[in-house]
Amino acid sequence: MRYAFTVAQTRALEEAAFAVVGGAALMQRAAHGLSVRAADLLAADRGAVYGARVVVLVGPGNNGGDALYAGQRLARRGCAVTAVQALGRPHAAGLAALLAAGGRLIGGDRFHDQDLAAADLVIDGVLGIGGRPGLPDDLAALIAGAEARRIPIVAVDLPSGVDTDTGQAPEGSVRATRTVTFGTFKPCHLIEPAASRCGQLDLVDIGLDESRTVPALAAWEPEDVAAHWPVPGPTSDKYARGVVGVDTGSQVYPGAGVLSTCGAVHGGAGMVRFLGAPRSAEIIVRDLPNVVFGEGRVQSWLVGSGWGDRADGDDVIAGLVAEGLPLVIDADGLRYLPAALPGNVLLTPHAGELARLLGIERAEVSADPATAVRRAADDTGATVLLKGATQLVAAAGVETVEVAVPGPAWTGQAGSGDVLGGLCAAVLAAGVGTRTAAVLAASVQAMAAARFPGPIPPQQLARHCASVIGEFSAALLHDLLGFVGSARSVDRAKPTRSSRSGPHGRDGRR
Ligand SMILES: NC(=O)C1=CN([C@@H]2O[C@H](COP(=O)(O)OP(=O)(O)OC[C@H]3O[C@@H](n4cnc5c(N)ncnc54)[C@H](OP(=O)(O)O)[C@@H]3O)[C@@H](O)[C@H]2O)[C@@H](O)CC1
Ligand SMILES: Nc1ncnc2c1ncn2[C@@H]1O[C@H](COP(=O)(O)OP(=O)(O)O)[C@@H](O)[C@H]1O
Ligand SMILES: [K+]
């Protein structure tokens, strides 16, 4: 799990550390970590650090200070270091240190694209957590020149130009090969479009103690997904795996009914009961003969995908909410929400649907998706999975927003969301808590898509999800066999491998 903290939280953590070791020590730790990673990159790229030509783009704050001290260390190792005064006045002590080590400073107005031609590495120390989003045009053009020449760029703390807390990345923001961040991750490292601009992410420990701060984001990694997936125990039957009831599709959108059912089947439900549109049922009975159609026992519900206009939409949803079982409400179902919902209802909007839910513009959701998804959870009482390039999950009253494992943009196609709804319902039917179920389902779809990147239709993507899930049980079996004589059954709702809560062990309740 990777935890991210906002600028305000990071500043508070830094203040606390200052009080113990002083600001200068923190900056030296940051600069040391940065220079080591920059040197690694040089060694990997050109076989040696000695003799490399390094350009350091320096801004007016401590981010530039880190970069200058790192430049000093690289100069001591035999690099030719040129600091470019990219923005404002550089950090005085850092500059003095670089000059004393044999580096040089050149004004931004005297450094041009062609001066980059011989560079082996660019260090982006223009803006860090004190930066406002966006860069001046001439600086953005210089950085674009470095990218066009394929010169590796190491971003200090974060790629300059991005919005640290929201993950927005205005045109011209740095696109780094590698980002070396200090103390903690920040939201821009985990939320698109900024996340993709970070390249390879490295966290340098500078001695911040974040253990008593509730993180803004908790980003899941594939091993967390494997550890939390509800793998059936040796004595599990279909009811232990869970029965999903599906009311999706319509005469106009029969495919949504089929795909949502497909997601539930391939997500590992013990049984799927389809009670949706007759036209969808005709296809399902042919393609998925394991699906049943009569009324009966259900452990989680999925509704809304492909409904279109539905005259009884309000009644159907109100009835299911009253029943109290875990319930996924997708797509058109989101138009029929009652005023208040319990936390075991999972809403799965994309940005447009979330905007409608909140009564705001889609652009506002895109500008700060973590805030929007948290607001939706607080306003409705439900758990909310916001779909898109970054899939975020928020629960009412919970400060930390969960981030699913990211996947390729190929997943963004009509029908993938329907499959995802089915995956969510399958995990819920197995007894997993709503917030965790949503992150697991969204992550598995992304992990499956990452294995087979390309324009794969959603029904095939669902089958790949089954393969990814199958590997969790194979890994679990391997682990179990390692514990000869240990308990033979597995508590399916609990994590099966590694730790459940990571270093923070928190639920983040406000
Ligand atoms: N604190 C610590 O303990 C440690 C901090 N560390 C490092 O410090 C970094 C944070 O440093 P920082 O606070 O000095 O902010 P930073 O981003 O360098 O620059 C702010 C300056 O930029 C200016 N400015 C902003 N946006 C602008 C724009 N768009 N266009 C033009 N100008 C703009 C802004 O101007 P103003 O807002 O005053 O107008 C201000 O002068 C952090 O990311 C990490 O690298 C590490 O050493 C570890 C220990
Ligand atoms: N850029 C992207 N990168 C990765 N996944 C994406 C991207 N854009 C969308 N997705 C995912 O693709 C799916 C598309 O869902 P949605 O737009 O609801 O489609 P539909 O409702 O038509 O099935 C969601 O799981 C979403 O999170
Ligand atoms: K930077």
TrEMBL record:
Start and end residues of each YjeF C-terminal domain: 221-472
Record-listed K(+) binding positions: N63, D124, S160
Cofactor: K(+); Mg(2+)
Chain sites annotated for binding (6S)-NADPHX: 62-66, 128-134, 157, 256, 306, 350, 418
Region feature (Disordered): 491-510
Keyword NAD: yes
Domain YjeF N-terminal: 10-214
Assembly description: Homotetramer.
Family label: Belongs to the NnrD/CARKD family. In the N-terminal section; belongs to the NnrE/AIBP family.
Function according to Swiss-Prot or TrEMBL: Catalyzes the epimerization of the S- and R-forms of NAD(P)HX, a damaged form of NAD(P)H that is a result of enzymatic or heat-dependent hydration. This is a prerequisite for the S-specific NAD(P)H-hydrate dehydratase to allow the repair of both epimers of NAD(P)HX. Catalyzes the dehydration of the S-form of NAD(P)HX at the expense of ADP, which is converted to AMP. Together with NAD(P)HX epimerase, which catalyzes the epimerization of the S- and R-forms, the enzyme allows the repair of both epimers of NAD(P)HX, a damaged form of NAD(P)H that is a result of enzymatic or heat-dependent hydration.
Protein name as annotated: Bifunctional NAD(P)H-hydrate repair enzyme
Highest classification ranks of the organism: Bacteria, Bacillati, Actinomycetota, Actinomycetes, Propionibacteriales
